[in-house]
């Protein structure tokens, strides 16, 4: 079985913590990474504060195969992600000649002001993440991938960077609607979970279309045979359930 | 000026990290806390893993006035938040007599199985967060507030627990639509930010209804006079802007 590849995600921005902006990137990145065989293990959201960003970067980058960041790469004073990454890695940061050249094609000398030039500041040694439609580039420095906060741009950057990443054995999953209340299946489900240690069994209650408490069960494993065996056990348990709803 | 009250939020659940469930609680709690004068400083999302939960709880609870958690208080084997909180505080955990009594009113002996009784396990010394419509209670132990993951239930729990919390001087905010591209105002905005140190000025680009790049500017401060002074400076800057869009 191939290596397990892990990731942490660092969402950077006062506006998420104040509730002004509702994050849409965590869910997208979580699903994206699952689909390419990278396990997202932890997410952190921190403010536009260099010390906080550096501390979180250093906590995550030593722990996981990759760290993805979103936010803080625009042209204004509160965009400090690139500087924080350079500081976390103790490398220099300067205007990247390739990015400056692209900016000169795009903007007149008058429009290419100091604020816009900030977006060309890239830590030494980083690879750019850019395309014709991306204004401020993202970048990848070692195992840290720095992306925009605006969802459409972040998503374009994910598509660019994903082929450069190693990916592991993909986590497989199967799910079934229990048509039972979570409390009625908790006991037998625990026994199945204990009997199938190489699987992860999740139980997610919801109100169904008849406004009755119902439960989705999700079985996950990297091994298709173990996944199937656990799923069979779950289905047998549900078929034998004697409890009336 | 009154004390500054801070909070961390810990979202617990494999389903968020796999992308299967899209979190709706972070945005709600962020906005709720801002409105009651509590500054959300950090969010973490971790898996249904006791060691991870305990480590995150201990990191956050010593650092912020309050820690809120969502998820992992249901009846199944993957619901381990209460145990993790007990472990983090090194206190015991047992079936809470008041909760068990409520469960006995609600369920027959047959339905009140071991799985459902798990929802009555509350760390020693915790105060319950419950109401007639809440099935599995949340609880507050010291500065840690444990809530359900299902948004409607979590929201009901926030309403119950909020009056018990101390709150600080509320962060005030004002915003203005710049009708300018972020890159055109980054320079003067930085000068305003530096000249108004007790305010936080955020710049948020967006595509407006005419599909032109536009920017929302948000000024925040606990001091209404300083907020107004910074906002006046921002408005003057925008009025004097010579750049054509």
Question: What would your notes on this structure say?
Answer:
2 copies of one chain form a homodimer. With about 240 residues, chain A is of the alpha/beta class. The first copy, chain A, has 2 domains: about 5-165, Molybdenum Cofactor Biosythetic Enzyme, Chain A (3-Layer(aba) Sandwich), CATH 3.40.980.10; about 170-240, 2-Layer Sandwich (Alpha-Beta Plaits). Chain A is about 40% helix and about 25% strand. Chain A contains 9 helices and 11 strands. Chain A has helices spanning about 15, 25-35, 50-60, 80-90, 95-105, 115-120, 150-160, 180-195, 225-240, and strands at about 5-10, 40-45, 65-70, 95, 120-125, 125-130, 140, 145, 170-175, 200-205, 215-220. In chain A, the strands form 3 sheets. In chain A, strands 2-1-3-8-7-6 form a 6-stranded mixed beta sheet, sandwiched between helices. In chain A, strand 7 (about 140) and strand 8 (about 145) form a beta hairpin. In chain A, helix 2 runs parallel beside helix 7, helix 3 crosses helix 4 and helix 8 (about 180-195) packs antiparallel against helix 9. Chain A is elongated. The two termini of chain A are about 40 Å apart. Chains A and B meet through helix 1, helix 2, strand 2, helix 6 and helix 8 of A and helix 1, helix 2, strand 2, helix 6 and helix 8 of B. Strand 2 of chain A pairs antiparallel with strand 2 of chain B, so a sheet runs across the interface.
